[in-house]
What we know:
Elements: H1 2-48
Amino acid sequence: MLLMVAGGFVLLRFIGQLMQAKRNMDAERAMHFNARKVQEEREEKRNKFGKTNVIAKTAKAKSSIFSSKTAEDVDFEEIKD
């Protein structure tokens, strides 16, 4: 009887350690994914630094590069002194 209770506690402890290891691996995987995403964005910005992009007037651009960007027309007035 005592051996069964001790075995149950050992089994619960083992399962808890497995769950904690799985949670840590998921957190580490998410951290690496975010770090890789930041690194890719940094490289993209470094490559495009100082360059000008021409965005289509329509909201849906044909190129996949500009698909998330939208063009906005801005009206401005001359300032008279």
